[in-house]
Amino acid sequence: MTPDLPLTAEDVAEIAEILAHSGYRELDLSTRRFRLRVSRGADQDGGGDGGLTQEWQWAGDGSAGAGPASAETAGEAAADPDLIASPLPGTFYHAPQPGAPPFVAVGDAITADTVVGIVETMKLMNPVHAGRAGTVAAVLAANGALVAKGTPLVRLT
């Protein structure tokens, strides 16, 4: 079973609003379930209104199914040039919407710009681009699977 996202979109918007109106550039929130870091980027004149970035991770207790893939699996993806890894944690989707054909299938020839899936993080849909050309040998992550940053999603040949 995939755990729910730790915060709603409204929660994140409220946190971002608090940060935007404070003198702080970064907020790091940790609970027993998750960790959220929100930071305010610098604009062109060095001020703090260049937009907000966020990252989060599950606190995971190390048991099977407790959270996203392990650091060992993520390290494997970074070391293997034939693997396309998740650029961030979230829920991986094969298709743009339920019932739609998948972005890629085994045997498809792809380019660096090909979208191979979507990772949903805190209600934001983030396209995952292949980053290199090749032929899809396997789609490794299940549709709807919770993935960590660096989790192998697709293997190329």
TrEMBL record:
Residues 40-81 are annotated as: Disordered. Keywords: Biotin, Fatty acid biosynthesis, Fatty acid metabolism, Lipid biosynthesis, Lipid metabolism. Transmembrane segments: none annotated. Gene3D superfamilies: 2.40.50.100. Pathway: Lipid metabolism; fatty acid biosynthesis. The keyword Lipid metabolism applies. It comes from the Bacteria. Residues 75-157 form the Lipoyl-binding domain. InterPro entries: AcCoA_biotinCC (IPR001249), Biotin_Carboxyl_Carrier/Decarb (IPR050709), Biotin_lipoyl (IPR000089), Single_hybrid_motif (IPR011053). Residues 66-81 have a biased composition (Low complexity). This protein is a component of the acetyl coenzyme A carboxylase complex; first, biotin carboxylase catalyzes the carboxylation of the carrier protein and then the transcarboxylase transfers the carboxyl group to form malonyl-CoA. This is Biotin carboxyl carrier protein of acetyl-CoA carboxylase. It comes from Novosphingobium capsulatum.
